[in-house]
Structures are given as C-alpha cells and as structure tokens.
Write a structure and sequence with these properties.
Blueprint (H helix, E strand, L loop, with lengths): L6 H14 L4 H18 L2 H18 L2 H19 L1 H19 L1 H16 L3 H4 L18 H17 L3 H18 L2 H17 L6
Helix pairs in contact: 1-2, 2-3, 2-4, 3-4, 4-5, 4-6, 5-6, 6-8, 8-9, 8-10, 9-10
C-alpha cells in the first residue's frame, strides 16, 4: 500500500493485523515501524514519533535491514522537521557504525542515499556546504537491489537538476517514471514526475 501511495490503507491494514493477532515483540516492532512510515506520509507526525521511539531501538539491534532502514529514514525526516538538517544528518551519521556491524555495506549505501535525498531536497542556501556522501553509481548496484539502483538514479537526477544539468536529469528520470507507472508504485512515480517537471521547467520548457 505504501509503494502504491496509499498510506491510509497501509495504516488500516497494519492496525487491523495488530488487533487480530498477538505478534512477538519483534514482529510488533517491525509492524510499528512500517506504520510510522505510513503515519509520516499522512502527516500524523506525533504518532510517527511515538512509534519510532518505541520500536526503532529493538529493530536496529535485532530486526532486518529493510525495516531498520525504513525506521532510520522516518526518524531522520522527523529530525529534519523538529530540529533542522544538521540534526537529521547527525542522526544518520551516528547510525553508520551500527548499520555496518549489523547489515554490512548495503545498509551503509542506503544510509548515504537517505542522507543525500535529504540534502538535495533542501533549498540552495541551506544545502550550501553540505557534502553529498558517496552513494555509488546505479550501474554498480546489481549486487544489491533493484530498488537501490532505482532510487540512486532518482538521486542522480536530482543532483543533475540542482547542478544545472536539466537534460541529464530528464534522461535519468524518464525510465523511473515509466517503470513506476507500469508497476503502480505511485509514491515513487510522483517523486519522479516532480523531478521531471522541475527539470523541464529549468530547461525552459513551458509544456511537457
């Protein structure tokens, strides 16, 4: 549901599942971090904060890589809202040793990607002086996951856009727009379409 851009449906599904069952502590914490992501997307920030505080520590120590990264991403986005970009980036930097110890290099690359996404979403004045971490090249991501490769391509498009290379940004983002639309992954499709529209505008196009 989250990939489809339907956080309300995701919240209901998870809440119903938790009400119907008696999951283990680890399973409940995993579900609550996905629920925190859905709450963040819905603008229910207080609920997202509560779920992150309650469930992220145990998942970071004992859960799987995807759920831990989901929690770290939401925690960083909340820190960005509550305390500003430096707090968000510090949080992700502090997680790097644990991510390497628990999950290895793929988790570190994903943390760098989350960090770079935050930086590139900032305004130009705030972004000045913040270094983009090495997240790798999408062509080198085959050993990891298609999601990582796709998100790295979207990040490259954003970086090309803010660097003044609008046409490169469009070339980067067009395959993502097509793939996410075909598979119904509306959350990423919307993000890719926003980058595409901004790149066309930056290139002087008024219709696209």
């Amino acid at each position: 549901f989250l990939l489809q851009g339907r956080p309300e449906a995701a919240c209901k599904e998870i809440e119903d599942m938790l009400a119907r069952n008696q999951p283990s502590e680890l399973m409940r914490a995993s579900a609550e971090l996905v629920l925190a992501d859905a709450c963040y997307e819905r603008g229910q920030l207080d609920q997202a904060r509560l779920l992150i505080r309650r469930s992220l520590p145990s998942i970071a120590q004992h859960g799987n890589i995807d759920i831990a990264l989901c929690g770290w991403r939401v925690a960083a986005r909340l820190a960005l809202i509550d305390k500003g970009p430096e707090a968000a980036l510090d949080l992700l930097r502090d997680m790097e040793p644990l991510s390497i110890r628990r999950f290895g290099a793929p988790a570190l690359r994903m943390l760098h990607l989350i960090r770079n996404e935050i930086i590139l979403d900032l305004g130009p004045v705030v972004r000045r002086g913040l270094d983009i971490a090495d997240g790798g090249d999408p062509g080198d991501a085959a050993a990891d996951t298609p999601e990582l490769a796709e998100r790295q391509r979207l990040l490259n498009a954003k970086q090309n856009l803010v660097s003044g290379h609008a046409r490169r940004a469009i070339a980067d983002v067009l395959p993502i727009v097509a793939a996410t639309r075909a598979s119904g992954r509306l959350r990423l499709w919307v993000q890719a379409c926003c980058v595409k529209a901004a790149a066309h505008h930056a290139d002087g196009e008024t219709t696209f």
